[in-house]
Specification:
heterodimer, A: Rossmann fold, six-stranded mixed sheet, 16 helices, 22% strand, B: MetI-like fold, transmembrane helix (chain B), MetI-like (chain B), transmembrane (chain B), Glycine betaine/proline transport system substrate-binding protein (chain B), carnitine transmembrane transporter activity (chain B)
């Protein structure tokens, strides 16, 4: 493996008295102290790490830890105060504008937290943007952009505008746009953080699938340990602008470098495996008033299910129907499902711990519905998911040596 | 109170300074002002003559069609345009209307040609922003009549000084709203444009200006309406048009003719404003 990106002692200071703050940093002073003495905010404090070609390198930290600042220095959307950024051995931090522009156009693309799509451009025009600024002629860039959209299954949407698409779809466009000019490095700044949990997991899967084929070097920013462990080949943990640990997920879970990482890992870890939100699956539903017993029966047959959840307006959970009842309605020629909705379905909130779930699910004849305060259906939990998660937890407990 | 300490400061001859500055400009740049006056007058006369060549009924139908498409095929504004313009024609105000129309269009176009680049400059440069902001404040707060004086000094009387004073009065909203529109473009849009390696002008023309368009159009709308109001005031220094009729009526204390012409101005203002707003909403 070769080193693709090397970051050496990268520093970013916001505010006046830059020099004074820089001196304090060299003396090994921390963020709080420097703020107190000089009024300058340390965004990134002497960060160093290497990213190998073809790996997904996750930079994780809570808000204010400097991870977004750090990633923006890699393509110099934010100018570093000090330090070097080497991409294939070339120092980005010392580049002239023209050279930098060439790197941005050909080597490094970025995906943004709120998608960063241009609202006045269609999906295709958005995807073309990176090629357009390079001056590639219209026919060729459209062909490439359409190819990129096609790879993401987005071609049918090419003439729509971003606000006509859901968040998940928009971010797929963001990713397709970033890939359209075939960059070597992808910078993803909290790319999935604005999405619903289920969509988010789909996107993580898609990213991993894409990576299998493309082998890009991906630098992925997140505040979510769960996400880091899922997609990261290696993870860097940041705190107060400093990189406190770099390692594989396994290494970080097993050997936290200091108290901070340990607490972080513990905290997030518990929520990671232990709540309903984290293990729930996409529910199969029919909408009351929209679908009748024939549709319901057909769905159950194609999905091989014996029951289906019924929702009303705004995904509000009403209950479930079973196949036998639906078949009876079809025979009696009744078109509304209303009379056969059963309501004895267990409901839990998304914060419910798995241990509590286990008891509920043990007694239930149906899947357990995960709902919010307004009874809006978020997902379902079936027995297999809980057992899977519990098994995984036990494994991790053993690693911790308990 | 006779010997207040303030009385020891001799009067500073501000007005003399300004007068001598204007005199100096008039004397030394007379050839330039003369050329602008002659060329401008010829140009605007030609435009007005051309407009007057169009039969009123054709002109009215064109405006009605514009109103129809601007309001997405609603009926209200086209109807208002039709009745309003027929009223103006009926009252024998067609020729002054065309003069006013020319003055407003020319003053607005000059304001936009100067104002949009100035607004872009302000949004890109803090120094330009710091210098131009007080200049714009000055232009907007100085009573409009004051501009008529140097306008007359430079250009004499007629349409050109009218347009000159209208441009000074109407320019600020376009500059301010262009600046505001570009500054309002979200950080993420700018970062997205930058991250793909846009040059400064690619970023400006492909991302910032399109996203600032709605705000800029609001400013341009203001500019057109301010130009209209100033064109009326400029009738005091001999700019022809509907304003001239109002001033004449004022000087002779004729209530009827004054209101007839005033109403024509209101009709023109409403038509211009609504058509522009309609197109901006698209």
């Amino acid at each position: 493996m070769t080193t693709k990106v090397e970051v050496q002692n990268l520093v970013k200071i916001f505010g006046k008295k830059e020099q004074q703050a820089l001196e304090l940093i060299h003396q090994g002073k921390q963020k709080d102290e420097i703020l107190q003495k000089t009024g300058a905010t340390v965004g990134v404090n002497q960060a160093s790490f290497e990213v190998q070609e073809g790996e997904i390198f996750v930079i994780m930290g809570l808000s204010g830890s400097g991870k977004s600042t750090l990633v923006r220095m890699l393509n110099r959307l934010i100018e570093p105060t000090e330090g070097n950024i080497l991409i294939d051995g070339d120092d980005i931090s010392k580049m002239e504008k023209n050279e930098l522009r060439k790197v941005r156009r050909e080597k490094v693309s970025m995906v943004f937290q709120n998608f960063g799509l241009f609202p006045h451009r269609t999906i295709l025009e958005n995807t073309e943007y990176g090629l357009e600024v390079q001056g590639i002629d219209k026919e060729e860039r459209q062909k490439k952009a359409e190819q990129a959209l096609d790879n993401a299954g987005l071609l049918p949407y090419k003439d729509q505008h971003p606000n006509q698409l859901s968040g998940g779809m928009q971010q797929r466009v963001g990713l397709a746009r970033a890939l359209a000019n075939d960059p070597e490095i992808l910078l993803m700044d909290e790319a999935f953080s604005a999405l619903d949990p289920l969509i988010r997991r789909d996107m993580q899967d898609e990213l991993l699938e894409m990576q299998e084929k493309m082998h890009k070097t991906i630098i992925f920013i997140t505040h979510d340990l769960n996400e880091s462990l899922r997609i990261g080949d290696r993870i860097a943990i940041m705190k107060d602008g400093e990189v406190v640990q770099v390692g594989t997920g396994e290494e970080i879970l097993t050997n936290p470098a200091n108290d901070y990482v340990e607490r972080f890992v513990e905290d997030v870890d518990r929520s990671k495996v232990l709540t309903a939100e984290n293990i729930m699956a996409r529910p199969q539903t029919v909408r009351l008033g929209q679908s009748g017993p024939r549709v319901a029966l057909n769905r159950m047959r194609t999905e091989s299910l014996s029951s289906l959840l019924v929702v009303g307006e705004n995904q509000k959970l009403l209950g479930y129907v079973v196949a036998d009842d639906a078949a009876r309605l079809v025979k009696e020629n009744i078109t509304s499902l209303e009379s056969i909705i059963r309501t004895d379905i267990p409901k839990v909130s998304k914060e419910t711990l798995i241990h509590e779930l286990y008891d509920v699910i043990h007694e239930a004849q149906t899947p357990v519905a995960v709902v919010d305060d307004n009874d809006k259906l978020l997902g379902i939990v079936v027995r297999g998911l809980v057992i899977g998660a519990l098994a995984k937890e036990r494994e991790e407990v053993t690693i911790d040596g308990e | 109170m006779e010997n207040s300490i303030l009385d020891f400061i001799p009067r500073v001859p501000v007005s003399e300074w300004i007068s001598s500055m204007i005199d100096w400009l008039t004397d030394n740049l007379a050839f330039l002002f003369g050329a602008i006056q002659d060329g401008g007058t010829w140009f605007m006369d030609t435009v007005t003559d051309l407009l007057l060549l169009i039969p009123p009924i054709v002109f009215i139908l064109i405006m009605v069609a514009l109103a129809f498409f601007a309001t997405k095929k609603k009926i209200g504004l086209p109807l208002f345009t039709l009745i309003g313009l027929i009223y103006i024609q009926n009252q024998g105000l067609w020729e002054p209307l065309m003069y006013t129309f020319t003055l407003v269009i020319v003053a607005s176009l000059i304001s936009i040609i100067i104002g949009v680049p100035a607004g872009i400059l302000m949004s890109k440069s803090q120094i330009a922003n710091a210098i131009l902001t007080p200049v714009l404040d000055f232009m907007q707060t100085m009573p409009a009549f004051v501009y008529l004086i140097p306008a007359v000094a430079f250009f004499g009387i007629g349409m050109v000084p009218g347009v000159f004073s209208a441009v000074i009065f109407a320019l600020p909203p376009t500059v301010r709203f262009t600046n505001l529109g570009i500054r309002q473009v979200s950080e993420e849009m700018v970062e997205a444009a930058e991250s793909f390696g846009s040059t400064g002008s690619q970023r400006l023309f492909k991302v910032e200006l399109p996203l600032a368009k709605a705000t800029m159009m609001a400013g341009i709308n203001q500019t057109v309406l301010l130009a209209l109001s100033m064109v009326v005031i400029a009738s005091m220094i001999g700019a022809p048009g509907l304003g001239e009729r109002v001033i004449n009526a004022l000087q002779r204390a004729q209530v009827g003719p004054g209101f007839v012409a005033g109403l024509a101005l209101v009709v023109l203002a409403i038509i211009l404003d609504r058509i522009m707003q309609g197109f901006n909403k698209k």
